[in-house]
Each structure stands twice: as structure tokens, then as C-alpha cells.
Amino acid sequence: MLTPPRTVVRRDGGLYALERALQRRGFRHVAGADEAGRGACAGPLVAAAAVLPEGRRGEIDGLADSKLLTAASRERIHDEVVARALAYAVVVIPAAEVDARGLHVCNLAAMRRALASLATRPEYVLTDGFGVDGLDVPGLAVWKGDRVAACVAAASVLAKVTRDRIMVGLDERYPGYGFAEHKGYITPEHTAALRELGPCREHRFSYANVATVSGRDGRPPRSRRPAGGGPGETLFGSPGEPLFGGSGAMLFGGPDEPMERSGAVGGTVGVAWGEQPRPPAPVGEDVVMEGGER
Q: Could you tell me if residue 1 is inside a domain?
């Protein structure tokens, strides 16, 4: 039996080259997955997945890695992805869950849940930087995938915009930290606020800078530790105030302002819970694929 020739996709081939090559090999629905908020010491971790249409219908003007876009461009592209995608999913993991189960475990769980929630079943999966196991379709971890593959870039925009809107809402609930400006990442202004005010319920107490000012050695306050349960359990951003929930929950960009709702143009939102991590497996400068193998 002859082995199919390998396909080499060069990094200078453009943002859509990798997906087009996979589609030519018979993988029509290629999903991309990415996250936002790994490096933040406050706020949730957000993962997203997206499947873009084949051909020109899937081309979005200005699509790029969310970190390279202005806030206005991200908002515009976010809305285009929601309108054009065959399917998309956004999964939110609260800070308390990151503390309880670990960042990488939560990251993998969120990406896996987002991919599993897609209304259009992917035939191939591209992820940014490290692989996600437990999927029943082939996949490839692509180094800087949000700058190489359009579907990963689309997922990065969905995750980033969703998380930014959440952080703007948290800024009104917890004034003084500047969440609307730095989005929970470590900046001199955020560090100064932490020292002055101490951490709030939305800080990640497992992070060294938060643990230092809290004096809890990485342990969150008892009122913030998860009591158990699984997807669908309502979590709280402040006492008695729902902020996150399971699939079908409404998220908020600001007080009483709906941000994403389950079922919107093929999209879903929800909360993922921890699973066992897998070591990262990034690829090199040029992506090499075995043609036709599943």
C-alpha cells in the first residue's frame, strides 16, 4: 500500500493556507481552538473554538491573532466570526476553578469542552501551542497557531473579546483594581492596587503575586473554594450574584448587559471542569502533514 505524499505548508503561505491544505486532503470542517487569560492573575480563563466555512465565505477581512488587533478591530471581527462561523463555542472557567485544579488542567478542559460543544462536528482540529487529547478526531498543535491558521485566530478573537467584556463587568463590581484597563494582567497599576486593597474574590490566589499580598500561601479564602459539582453548577462573581453558569447560562459584559447566549448563531457558552493535562507538543517553523491520514 502506497503512503500518501506529505504536504508541507509554509508559514509564509498566509493565514488560510493550512486550513485550505487540510480541506484539499478531505477534512472539510477544520476547527481551531485557543484561550485567553492564562497569564492574568485575576478573572476567568476563557477558551473558544470555531469552524469557519470553506472558501471565500470563511475569509474575514483583518482576521489575525487577537493580541495584534486593536480593541475596536477585535470587536468587529468577533461579530463577523459569530455571524459567519459554521459553529463556535466559548467556555469560561472561573478563577476559583483555576486555583483548585491548576491552570494547565483547566486550560485543556476548557478547550476540550469548547471543541466538543461545536454544533458542526470538526473533522480535524488545530490548537495553539499544545495538543488537546481526548478528542475523537485527528489534530495538530501549531506553534503560534493564532498567527498561522485562520480558525485558531478566530477562536483567539472570540476568547479575548469574551474575556475582556467580562473584565469590564468585574471592574464595576470591584472598583479600584482597574480591571477594565489591564483586564486582570499584572501591571504596575494592578500591583499597586493589590498592595493597597488586597485581593478580591476574582483574583487567583494560586498565583505568587496574589498569594504574597494575601498571606494565604496560594490558598483561596474558604468562601471562594469550590464545593464540588460539575458543569451546570451556578458559580458566583460576588455574594448572591450569578456571573457564570453551565451551558445555556448568560454571561455579562457589564451589569445586566447580556454578552453571549447559548444558541446564538451556532454558538454555545458554558463552564468546563478540570481533567488531566498532556505535555505540550508544538510543531516547528513549517507545518508538515501526512496527506489523507485520519
A: no
Range of the structural domain that residue 261 is part of: 6-290
Nearest CA among 277, 275, 273 for reference residue 96:
273
Per-residue model confidence as pLDDT tens digits over 153-190:
999 999 999 999 999 999 999 999 999 999 999 999 99
**CATH number of domain containing 110:** 3.30.420.10
Place of cell 447566549: 261
78 phi and psi angles, rounded to 5 deg: -55, -50
Total domains, the chain: 1
Residue 12 lies in a domain: yes
Percent of the chain with pLDDT over 90: 56
Is residue 135 in a domain?
yes
What does pTM read for this prediction? 0.75
| Residue 276 burial by Cβ neighbours in a 10 Å radius (0-12, 13-18, 19+) | exposed
Predicted confidence (pLDDT) per residue in 2-37, tens digit: 555 566 666 566 899 899 999 999 999 999 999 999
From its phi and psi, is residue 173 left (phi > 0), alpha (psi between -120 and 50) or beta?
alpha
C-alpha dihedral sign at 272, 58, 263, 137? negative
